[in-house]
Fold this protein.
Amino acid sequence: MNEDDPSVPRRDFLRQSLAAVGGIGLASTLGATGLTALFSETAHAAELPTTDVITRARRELIMFHGQSNAVGTGGRPALTLQQIYANVTFNGGVRPGVNPAAMTGFTPLVEYDSGSGTGGEVGTNGCADGLVEYTQVLTGIPFTAQFSQYSAFSSAEGGRPIGYFASFLEDSNLGGYQGWKNSQLRLQSMITQMRAEAAVTGGNMAWLATTWQQGEADSTGLTETRATYAKKLTALERAHWLKLCQVLVPEQAWRPLWLVAQVCSHNSYGSTNLAFCNPFIALAQRDACLASAYMRMVNPQYLFDYADESALKQPMLHLTNECHRWQGRYFARAIYQLIQDRQGGVPMRHPALDMVSAMVVGPRTIYIAFNVPAGGLVLDTSWVAATRNAGLDVRDANHAVVPASATDDNLIAAIDVIAGDILRLTLKVPLPVAATRLSLGWGDRNEPAALAGRMAGPRSNIRDSAGDIDLYTASDGTLRPMHNYALVGDVPLTRL
């Protein structure tokens, strides 16, 4: 199916999504600056070299990477079965595995239930289509006239720790573990197909972005620490640039984007595990992105529904098909935002809602400052179920929750929004000397261990208001706000 002959049902379905984000109704309700404001603000970040200004290409690659959530496990049945735009994937589908016959040409980018992997809906289509739609809404350029089209596939492999994907850490060592070699094969095959297309069309190509959904396997506490995971994730992104992008696409002077969806299933490993209420992998992902000029957190995955896999005798680890698709839309928005920054030659913003600092301003008062991507802070229990203190806890140097007394384990009395980017915590008693940190989204020991997602498990009720003007159209036609929910995180308490 080509771009001039989209399926009518699929076209009409996505037109609803365009209307939801403002393509049809925005001008009459919010004015031209409504949605645009969501994509224009930047936050302080590490400086980028001037050579890292993104240059757009006719065909751009988006690679999904990681483990089971990045191949759509839990995502059956597939939802996106018809192509509307000119986006493509391998002839063997978005999950080609390591089968050479599945990587010999292009086919329309759709999702499917057969082939390699165990999933259904992966989200590659939601990401690529979403990028087309955001571009159409925010620039006014219809998809048939847009300069860039996308190829997408998943290079993930289920159940693997980060070490399986990591190349050897030294820049000069071109070897790597099996997952690295598998990903290298898939990338070589995709670049080959992109080059063949460019030779016929007279176009050019680029590697635009890698998305990362990984960490469940490392949340067992048996393979990595917070520091080692952050180091390996940083090294893996760098290795993809030095040993793959610069080798396979030497004409590309700029470094691809690397976007992380934060793992939020750490409690699912059970109350006896090191990870329970100590999300060191989620924190490590955040650490790596905060320290990088190239990697960015996109969203915490607790805002989604997780598949009930109790019949398989395993905890809740995988998103549902609808939420795999929705995750793709979150990736699309962040990619669009970061392209604007990189084309403008400015430091990339942090697209996720995140704690920045916690200041003790009185014996019983703490002010928490946030990086707020859009609008202002909101305390909300209508989508993500209410959790203790909206997900906040005061902790000591050993990560233990600091109690109010011997009979009351909750120090926090009240939480209030006092500015667009500031929350105020009121404590029941003066802040104990042992208190050193504030945590968010670590989980509640009083809740069942083997649960995850928006209804139970580690989560937060703190969001921004991005979804007031940006809505996702679900497969059943309902509209879901694209709010940014706060990342799982921690910050030191600063006593003034």
The chain is about 25% helix and 20% strand. Residues 258 and 295 are 5 Å apart (CA to CA). The two ends are 63 Å apart (CA to CA).
